[in-house]
Amino acid sequence: MDDDDAGLWGRVRQGDELALAALFDRYEARLFRHASRLLTAREDAKDAVTVAFFELWRKRASVRLVEGSPLPWLLTTVAHCARNLERSGRRYRALLDRAPVPAPRAMHGQDDSGVLAALKRLPEREQAVVVLAVLEGYAEREVAQALGIPAGTVKSRLARAKAKLRDEVALEGARA
Fold first, then answer.
1. Which UniProt keywords apply (predicted)?
2. How far apart are alpha carbons 83 and 68 in whole angstroms?
């Protein structure tokens, strides 16, 4: 098997997912550093890299290599993804600035489970999805529309947030 970029790329074009995984392993750290320079949030940098590899797979029939390597294409795609993520973040923050602030509800008792404290420690983007979908009961497509993001992003952020909350609450329970 060819382990150079051209050999791996030939296998990717034929639909070999393991070859794509090998390219991911080879370039993920470099692409993440590139995305991190363009974005402020670590999770956004991870998302930009993931989207770039998804697009590489999706557009594998039309991607043009530079000197036999997909790296320049991936670097450009990560930069585009980063700009899109920043733009959607600005739209989201503008939406929050325009949204009416509900009167705070009185808490009945204390949060003995630590769930609310764990929720406050989540990244802002994940907090918004959890609040709208779980606490307020909106459907995922309604959350997506309200936040101006794709429904798939709502699902992935919600799953990521639930996993973090579950881990934090379990850790807190183990300490108690």
1. DNA-binding, Sigma factor, Transcription, Transcription regulation
2. 26
Q: What percentage of residues in the chain have a pLDDT greater than 70?
A: 89
pLDDT, one tens digit per residue, over 127-147 is 989 888 888 888 898 888 888
Q: Are 143 and 129 in contact (CB under 8 A)?
A: yes
Q: What is the span of the domain harbouring residue 13?
A: 5-96
Same domain, 43 and 83: yes
- Given this model, what pLDDT does residue 115 score? 77
Per the DSSP assignment, residues forming a β-bridge with 66 are 69
Residue 22 lies in a domain: yes
126 and 155 assigned to the same domain: yes
- Please say which residue of 43, 62, 96 terminates a domain: 96
Phi-psi region of 67 (alpha: psi -120 to 50; beta: other; left: phi over 0): left
Question: Is residue 69 helix, strand or coil?
Answer: strand
Shared-domain flag, residues 10 and 92: yes
Domain shared by 136 and 84, yes or no: no
- What does the alpha-carbon distance between residue 108 and residue 85 come to, in Å, rounded to a whole number? 38
Which tokens belong to 132? 């709208």
Which of 34-38, 95-99, 161-165 has the weakest average pLDDT?
Answer: 95-99
